[in-house]
Design a protein that fits this description.
By secondary structure, this protein is an alpha/beta fold. It contains eight helices and eleven strands. A five-stranded parallel β-sheet has the order 2-1-3-4-5, sandwiched between helices. Strands 6-7-8-9 form a four-stranded antiparallel β-sheet, with helices on one face. A two-stranded antiparallel ribbon has the order 10-11. The radius of gyration is 18 Å and the shape is elongated.
Length: 225
């Protein structure tokens, strides 16, 4: 049974979501605002948080940042703000997913299952270093040649997947399975696009190096020699 923190100020929505979560076998703790949510996190340990963005006392984005500062808690945003800029901000704060209102309970529960199936952020522990990279698995952060990389959710997932098997060639299909498992409608070009933006960020740190290698017809690898 997973413990889920639900932060939603609309009682009718919260009651429906909490009931559905409990019917799935989870334990749900409902909070109406950010202050109460932070107090709950101080007293209890949760496996996942579902946050509304439009809370009465603080934005869900600010709450997400504070929660993740305290502990690597997976977060799903549940909100009426469905603009692309809002979604990107949520992902860049480290959210696992983003579900827009009005929503399907079945879809939300499916996304919860996907988020809970992922290895917990603390798994593996410590900091792995290779080829100028330092991967803080617990903090979901990667440094390159001493510089912290400002990565989006999928850029982080892509680089982490390649760092897990340095030098090995991973096909686009393998990377899709590892990084975009909750976005089945994404195509192979999604991988190529994120490789391009990730490569640009690495070159901004070290213009003389290109550790992210393209193997035409095969996939991508990370050179850490």
């Amino acid at each position: 049974m997973s413990r889920i923190l639900l932060v939603e100020d609309e009682t009718a929505i919260a009651d429906t979501v909490a009931y559905a979560l409990r019917a799935e076998g989870h334990e749900a703790r409902h909070c109406l605002d950010g202050r109460t949510a932070l107090a709950a996190v101080a007293d209890e340990t949760f496996d996942l948080a579902i946050l509304d963005v439009g809370l009465p006392d603080v934005s869900g984005f600010a709450l997400c940042a504070e929660l993740r500062r305290r502990a690597p808690l997976p977060v799903i945003f549940l909100t009426a703000q469905a603009a692309e800029a809002e979604r990107v901000l949520g992902f860049e704060l480290g959210a696992e997913d983003y579900v827009a209102k009005p929503f399907s309970l079945r879809e939300l529960l499916a996304r919860v299952r996907v988020a809970l199936r992922r290895p917990p952020p603390t798994s593996g522990g410590g900091i792995a270093a290779a080829g100028g990279f330092e991967h803080d698995r617990a903090g979901l952060r990667i440094r390159y040649r001493g510089q912290p990389l400002e990565l989006t959710r999928y850029e982080y997932g892509l680089l982490a997947a390649l760092l897990a098997r340095p030098g090995a060639v991973l096909s686009r299909a393998q990377l899709m399975d590892r990084v975009w498992e909750d976005a089945p409608d994404s195509g192979d070009r999604t991988v190529d696009t994120h490789v391009k933006t990730l490569r640009a960020k690495l070159r901004a740190v070290a213009p003389d190096a290109d550790p992210l290698r393209t193997h035409r017809g095969l996939g991508y690898s990370l050179d850490v020699d």
